[in-house]
């Protein structure tokens, strides 16, 4: 018996029809009523990645090199994402990708990524429950915020006041 086998505690006989599930049933369960083990397994590439990382970590030098490489790769991705945050585009998504890279080796990054995912899901669920007017107001507020950040970064970086330039050209 493996860890994925399901034991019937009631010792009852299988349902009529040979234990087959009616058409349109839950695809996550097998004909015996248990959870389909193939859906619980990690994808093959994740198994290969876990094995590769375990082999590298088994060697003390490999462990240090892996930590340094993951740290630098995560730092590069987070830095690029942080530079892109004020601009329209996927800046925060890139920062979260860098945090995901760090989470391969650093437990603090894994905890921070878990925290961020949880609250991002909560925020997304809350927004989707709101009316269209509230969603539009949230979208407009976000666009105003991004516009203000772009305006401030251009003003500070290039000493160009975009509002003044637009008014001079009109």
Helices and strands, with pairings:
Elements: H1 37-40, H2 44-58, H3 60-84, H4 91-102, H5 107-129, H6 132-158, H7 162-169
Helix pairs in contact: 2-3, 3-4, 4-5
Counting DSSP E segments of at least 2 residues, the number of strands comes to 0
Which percent range fits the helix content?
Answer: 55-70%
Query: Helical element count?
Result: 7
Morphology:
flat
Low-confidence stretches: 1-22
Query: What about the largest sheet?
Result: none
Task: Report on this structure.
By secondary structure, this protein is mainly α. The chain has a domain at 130-170. Helix content is 67%, strand content 0%. The protein has helices at residues 37-40, 44-58, 60-84, 91-102, 107-129, 132-158, 162-169. Helix 2 (44-58) crosses helix 3. It is flat, with a radius of gyration of 26 Å. The protein starts with 36 loop residues before the first helix and ends with a helix. The relative contact order is 0.05.
Keywords:
transmembrane helix, transmembrane, flat, mainly alpha, 170 residues, membrane, Uncharacterised_PGPGW_TM, disordered N terminus, 7 helices, TIGR02611 family protein
In short:
The chain crosses the membrane at residues 64-85, 91-113, 134-158. The protein contains seven helices and no strands.
């Amino acid at each position: 018996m493996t860890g994925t086998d399901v034991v019937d505690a009631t010792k009852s006989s299988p349902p009529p029809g040979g234990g087959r599930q009616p058409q349109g049933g839950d695809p996550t369960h097998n004909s015996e009523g248990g959870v389909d083990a193939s859906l619980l397994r990690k994808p093959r590439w994740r198994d290969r990645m876990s094995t590769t990382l375990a082999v590298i970590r088994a060697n003390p030098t490999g462990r240090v090199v892996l930590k340094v490489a993951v740290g630098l790769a995560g730092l590069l991705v987070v830095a690029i994402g942080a530079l892109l945050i004020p601009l329209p585009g996927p800046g925060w998504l890139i920062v979260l990708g860098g945090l995901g890279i760090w989470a391969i080796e650093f437990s603090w990054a894994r905890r921070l990524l878990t925290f961020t995912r949880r609250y991002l899901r909560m925020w997304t669920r809350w927004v989707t429950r709101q009316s269209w007017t509230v969603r539009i107001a949230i979208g407009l507020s976000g666009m105003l915020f991004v516009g203000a950040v772009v305006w401030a970064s251009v003003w500070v970086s290039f000493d160009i006041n975009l509002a003044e330039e637009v008014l001079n050209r009109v």
